[in-house]
């Protein structure tokens, strides 16, 4: 009886202790053993008495602090081999970074126990010997970097089993043999680097979709480039009698030339006719000159007929521009974009200042209502809200004048310039965009007794201010627009489901659109885009379908994968975004709450840690040695 009581008490006591001090005890012991054996040259603050999940450098726990899910120990001076049965006991590990140390010995085969690994970074060490034969044990692997070691042997065919693999770096090793053709099935793969190994043989076709730097220095000859490497001696070709063009006889050849000349002449005639016809057409629509010239992107003067010469630009207080409507009309204009409510031009004034001029169409409001709404919009002065400088209202023209942002919109930074010289948008900037935009929209929502609606939140309406924080524009216009204006389709992809039915935007539909912008920042994908197979993808639906599974790494933009320490933040941001895009408006968070949530993720690690590939940037030691 007594023994029973005592054991019950003891049981509850241990529960209380456990509850107050919840931490992954087993995982902790494994890490402490690892530390005692390896003795890195840089000291870690892993004190048995301090709470591991909160205070240990380079260690991340899951949300209920029951397991360790990430260990990042870059450049802490680890030497020798990884002791067996230490790190391999952290079986919930998703991220392991031991890069930039001096670890030697073979690939730690015990890592096959770490079946949840999504990111494994062992680059810049002294590992040697063959790679594991069977990679299929790491089914969840998304990023693998083994570059700058001394691995030898062949590239394992089993890598082809990693269906989620997005980034594979085996560069600067001593791998030999051929590149397995089987790897062509890696459909998620977005980055690969096999350069500087001893690989040989034919270059597989699937590899050609990656930039040549991915396979430079491997001694492979691209199949199409064989002649390039063995050009025939020039004098030999001179000596040979010149064969007839395409091997045709002289008569046929002449006939072809005559026909070609005839067709060319005919085409030229047609072209001249078409030009004359178009010119006469253009004359008829002279009224649209402004738009036409802008569309052709020629920075010509735009002349706008002023029917009401007495109308002036209305400036807001504190505006330091000094120009008149006439100056504006004399300025050279260039189209910046066609938006939901009209076309925006960049106008360069004679004193070389640039402003953005929005030419509204489908304005339903009368002059008084329009002016009232402009006063509300122009009254907002906030670092995350693009300031309205001036406006103009006449029967035929409604203009709004804003500051011009030379960096372009977030949409163009994310989706524009996909070519060779693309500058990826880094994580820190993306977070600053999200935080800034959230603050800006929250500020707008406080205006007009807390009733003002942005109504047009999308990435092409968010800019980077001088501190590279997000800054929102193009708000408050739904109130003056004709309700039946067709351009609502331009907002497709950002529009909350209830707006599709009622055509009435609200603060909660702004939250939905903001959620879509967050998804855009995280995935790098446009809200509506087409796949290679011409399938139309709605970003929100797509993310839902991918996130059904527990590990969601593959939704993220590959440009973010080079940051080895932000996966948890990305997952948290994803959760915030998903809470914004729920169907029921009243279940979405308020903008003011979102500011707090997004900021808490964004400010977690501080800017120091989000720089990619900088030594010691991944760990936050209070006292660096
Ligand atoms: C751990 O922390 C306790 C108190 O915080 C301190 O007394 C002890 O010396 C520390 N141990 C080590 C090994 O640093
Ligand atoms: C542990 O971390 C918390 C907050 O991160 C800090 O306030 C506290 O001083 C730390 N404790 C130790 C012993 O380092
Ligand atoms: C912690 O969360 C995981 C799921 O992430 C769950 O499997 C586990 O049972 C939870 N542990 C505790 C102690 O709540
Ligand atoms: C790989 O390197 C080790 C020494 O580090 C050597 O013993 C072995 O023969 C090499 N294997 C191959 C296939 O080159
Ligand atoms: C490989 O080594 C070269 C020369 O040391 C270096 O420039 C290059 O960045 C390395 N590649 C990778 C992927 O680390
Ligand atoms: C792998 O690590 C090397 C060395 O730190 C780095 O240069 C390279 O960009 C990384 N590869 C990928 C795909 O991130």
TrEMBL record:
Q: Where is this region: Disordered?
A: 603-625
Q: Which InterPro entries match?
A: At_inactive_RLKs (IPR050994), Kinase-like_dom_sf (IPR011009), Leu-rich_rpt (IPR001611), LRR_dom_sf (IPR032675), LRR_N_plant-typ (IPR013210), Prot_kinase_dom (IPR000719), Protein_kinase_ATP_BS (IPR017441), Ser-Thr/Tyr_kinase_cat_dom (IPR001245)
Pfam families recorded for this chain? LRR_1, LRR_8, LRRNT_2, PK_Tyr_Ser-Thr
Assign the protein's first listed, main location to one coarse class. membrane
Q: Where is the Protein kinase domain?
A: 330-601
> Can you tell me which residues the record assigns to a coiled coil?
none
Print the keywords alphabetically.
Answer: ATP-binding, Cell membrane, Glycoprotein, Leucine-rich repeat, Membrane, Nucleotide-binding, Receptor, Repeat, Signal, Transmembrane, Transmembrane helix
Q: Where in the cell is it found?
A: Cell membrane
* Biological process, per Gene Ontology: detection of stimulus
Q: Where is the signal peptide?
A: 1-22
Q: Name one GO molecular function term.
A: ATP binding
What highest taxon heads this organism's lineage?
Answer: Eukaryota
Q: Which residues bind ATP?
A: 367
Record's GO cellular component terms: plasma membrane
**Per its UniProt record, what SUPFAM superfamilies does this chain match?**
L domain-like (SSF52058), Protein kinase-like (PK-like) (SSF56112)
Q: Which PROSITE patterns match?
A: PROTEIN_KINASE_ATP, PROTEIN_KINASE_DOM
Please give the name of this protein: Protein kinase domain-containing protein
What organism does the UniProt record list as the source? Eruca vesicaria subsp. sativa
Report membrane topology.
Answer: Single-pass type I membrane protein
Q: Where are the transmembrane segments?
A: 252-278
